[in-house]
Amino acid sequence: MLRNILIGLILFAALTWGCEKDDDGPTANAVNIYRLSDYKTAEGSCRIIDSTVKLDDHIIVPFDQMIAYNKRTHTFTVTDRIAERLNDTQEDPIHSTAFAVIVDREVIYTGYFWAGYSSASCDWVTIDPLNYGGRNELKVSLGYPAPFEDVPDRRNDKKILKVFRLHGKLRG
After folding, report:
1. Residue 160 is assigned to a structural domain of this protein
2. Cα angle vertex 162, ends 157, 165, to 5°?
3. Is residue 72 assigned to a domain?
4. Tens digits of per-residue pLDDT, 68-110?
5. Considering Cα of 53, then 111, then 34, then 56, what sign does the dihedral take?
6. What is the number of structural domains in the chain?
7. 109 bridge partner residues
8. Which residue, of 6, 31, 111, 148, has the fewest CB within 10 Å?
């Protein structure tokens, strides 16, 4: 009898401790947008070569500042604080800054913050950082000023959707 109780307690403890949430910092169970510190592009293109990506320590858009992600429109809705910072073209202009969308330390896709006033085109993933409509939305596009063919579409990667669903932040 005592043996059965001990086995039951051991199993209960193993299940309880084994199911703890992985929460070891700002990247656990989260989607973050990091600045890139270094990367290479394909010749004559904006296309970032994934194997060359090095992340900066700076998270441009941390998960706790993301209100929602709309999988239909590929749009991150962010807090006023983030929208204001991205719109500050004087203090820290973000236009043409390379970024990576990260899920739990894994690069899902890369791109550039590419302001809508730009006259230059970009044949890679872009996010217009300027909040023209006042809705704090960061729309992810497959190029600028219009979509380019052959840009891999990882905007609705299953890992991204899983995290937003887990936190009740998935829309669309």
Report:
1. yes
2. 125
3. yes
4. 999 999 999 999 999 999 988 776 678 899 999 999 989 999 9
5. positive
6. 1
7. 101
8. 6
